[in-house]
Specification:
By secondary structure, the protein is of the alpha/beta class. The strands form three sheets. A seven-stranded parallel beta sheet has the order 3-2-1-4-5-6-9, with helices on both faces. A two-stranded parallel ribbon has the order 7-8. Strand 5, helix 6 and strand 6 form a beta-alpha-beta unit. Helix 2 runs parallel beside helix 3. It is globular. Pfam families: adh_short. It is found in: Endoplasmic reticulum.
Length: 326
């Protein structure tokens, strides 16, 4: 039986190598491309804008705070590779009114041309025990983290399909792959982005438009610092089991995956393993993603229980174990 499974895996890997040129999209060239980054005034969004600018892209930054936008623009412009590059700043709340977001995208396209890549980075976080979170915060987080990505994506998708090219990136979170203590308001909003990304990819792939959903770990950003002020102890201890990533490191990985047209984007070995365990039946654009699904399917035939220790085992007073069945 084991030999049969091994033979199947080897045959499947060979098949993937043979068909990979057919399923892998042509990389997007960022030189001269128009990249729109929502939530681009700070954190991961700003670092993504910098990374794209370094590769010759024209950038439209979209965020609410005009002062932060101006400061971010100055920082990004330091990384120009030619004197033709432009950083356009537009202040708007992408979660409030679709028509307003649509008008903003039109303004950006009139000035810098059609959008080649949209990066949905606008988002906010909130942690706390379920019964202690104010009830209206659940709706607000869904507006910002989910609708704040739906509206800009809806505004660019028609043009991308007409041009038969484009990239749309959704910034989810590892909390959008695995529900965690203290994230009852936050995790569902990030899970929703995965559902949107999977459904949308099925619709737009025939038009050579590719979707990437990124699952960054805890990252050193102003938003993360603010979130830590109200984190329950249990949530803090879970976070401490992994190292804090830098925003520029996360941005480089996301941009690379988006340019390649990869559906999943994860950071580090922990991120890779979590993506492998939770890949489900996500769209496959690389051999690695295909192998992740094969691995998960194969493991399901073994009725074993796998335990992930989310807190250090020596901290017995706050020991927390999450058990999952593959």
């Amino acid at each position: 039986m084991l030999l049969l499974v091994a033979a199947f895996l080897v045959a499947f890997v060979l098949l993937l190598y043979m068909v990979s040129p057919l399923i892998s999209p042509k990389p997007l060239k960022l030189a001269g491309a128009h990249v729109v980054v929502t939530g681009g005034s700070s954190g991961i969004g700003k670092c993504i804008a910098i990374e794209c600018f370094k590769q010759g892209a024209f950038i439209t930054l979209v965020a609410r705070d005009e002062a932060k936008l101006v400061q971010a623009k100055k920082e990004i412009e330091k990384h120009s590779v030619n004197d033709k590059q432009v950083v356009l700043c537009i202040s708007v709340d992408v979660s409030k009114e679709y028509r307003q977001v649509e008008n903003v995208i039109k303004q950006a396209q009139e000035k810098l041309g059609p959008v080649d890549m949209l990066v949905n980075c606008a988002g906010t976080s909130l942690s706390g025990k379920f019964e202690e979170i104010e009830i209206d915060r659940f709706a607000r987080l869904m507006e910002v983290n989910y609708l704040g990505s739906v509206y800009p994506s809806r505004a660019v998708i028609s043009t991308m399909k007409e041009r038969r090219m484009g990239r749309i990136v959704f910034i989810s979170s590892q909390a959008g792959q695995l529900g965690l203590f203290g994230y009852t308001a936050y995790s569902p909003t990030k899970f929703a982005l995965r559902g949107l990304a999977e459904s949308l990819q099925m619709e737009v792939k025939p038009y050579n438009v590719y979707v990437t959903v990124a699952y960054p770990p805890d990252t050193d950003t102003p938003g993360f610092t603010e979130e830590n002020k109200s984190k329950p102890l249990e949530t803090k201890l879970i976070s401490e089991t992994s190292s804090l990533c830098q925003a520029d490191q996360v941005a480089r990985v996301i941009v690379k995956d988006a340019v390649q047209g990869n559906f999943n984007s994860s950071v580090g070995s922990d991120g890779y393993m979590l993506s492998s365990l939770t890949c489900g039946m996500s769209p496959v654009t690389t051999i690695t993603e295909g192998l992740q699904q094969v691995f998960q399917t194969a493991m399901k035939h073994e009725p074993a229980m796998y335990t992930i220790h989310l807190l250090h085992p020596t901290r017995m007073q706050t020991y927390y174990i999450r058990t999952i069945r593959l």
